[in-house]
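Case study B.
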Amino acid sequence: MEITKEMVERTATALKLEDITKRKVLTTPWQPKVQYAWDDGPAIGRYLAELKNGRIIARTCRKCRRIMIPPRMFCELCWRPSDDWTFVKDTGVVNTFVISHVDWKAGRLDIKGGERPLTPAVIEIDGASAGMGILHMLDEVDPWQIKIGMKVQAVWKPQAERQGAITDIRYFKPLAPERKRGK
Amino acid sequence: MALAERIHRTIDATHWRGEIPLNYIYTPGRAGEQFLRALLDEETFLGARCAACGVTYVPARIFCERCFARIEDSFVKLGKRGTVHAFTVSHETFDGVRKEEPSIVALIKLDGADGVVLHRLGDVDPGDVRVGLPVEAVFKPKKDRQGSILDVRHFRPAKG
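Model:
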């Protein structure tokens, strides 16, 4: 296991990293195996299963007539169970986005060295009610050309690689016609 | 409302599996370091004495719990002998599986100390263990010791 300077310097007794790496102090290392299984429930369970099939499924409420994505078994506005399953498209519109120079581990990306900024976005899915969307990544687009309202489409993993996860969609890319310049 | 999903066996629920990586390094601290090194190098338990309170703590510690005096300079070697203060004969593992041979865990009151240490008893029939039984620590060979309480393999009835 890799011991970092930060880990050591957080301890109450002032130890230096080399006190541990050079075994100047006694240590007891332990790596507990922590496993969990999250019950994804009927709504997200079906949603993930359909992603594996290459489709996006939503849930409707007959009272407020919303088509909800991600699907949920309970309409939080009407305070009643939702009613029906319905498939929506795998295209959508950028609702909001970020150009991030920081990666998942809070490390700085080497933008000058050629790394592409990460561009997570909330995407309103076509076929669902206005404002209902999912968080995903944008790619195959110059980060600085991304606009709110831009039409995008899902880029799926090949069927054999899909496992019933949100990452079965690799990312969203601009919908083909919108990519032409001068439009 | 009716339940949206009726599951009788938890294994039937659709689920998402994950692992949480946890890395842990325990450093025993100033007193603990000396306590473990005494086991490692000298085959003795190290205590700390507060003269004002007349109390000897084991394992050694920096402060007296009663008067908060600093007792870091009053460490004492307690040797490796003591008596059984309390014990349990365990017939099951941590997972509740029946063991072939029972194991014995005991609180050992070391000679000259006011506290106890928790350890295993060995080289003894469970039926022969009793409170007050004189015992001594059995150390692993020097080359196998790592500066851990497990450098003591177990306690056994004291000879002589």
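The mean pLDDT of chain A is 91. The remaining cases will be described in the next quarterly update.
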